[in-house]
Design brief:
Elements (H helix, E strand, L loop, with lengths): L2 E16 L6 H10 L6 H14 L7 E2 L3 E2 L1 E4 L2 E2 L10 E19 L1
Parallel strand pairs: 4-6
Antiparallel strand pairs: 1-6, 2-3, 4-5
Amino acid sequence: MKKFKVEVTTTNTYEVEIDENVLNEEWMQEFRETFYSFSTLEEHAQQIAEQRVRKAERTDSFLEGYGKVRIKDYGFDSKNWDSPVDGITINVINEDEIAETEVTEIL
């Protein structure tokens, strides 16, 4: 039996929309008490995008600490079938675009 180590490098690009009237200072304070000590919307945008990348099931719009967020993906809009929270939208620019694949046989 042959074994291979396969390393696939992908690119994911998102536009994360955050309504600062919803994710205001009061909301952020509650978030910091339970999750991470983020103090900027940029930190939240990064966390939201990173959680999206880690999701194996792309139809699941729930993100830890944020709830169900709105996903817009190539004409698909989760708002049409889900009840996302107000204030966060992820616009998928591209997802899992393979940039490089490296295969090494394991002896």
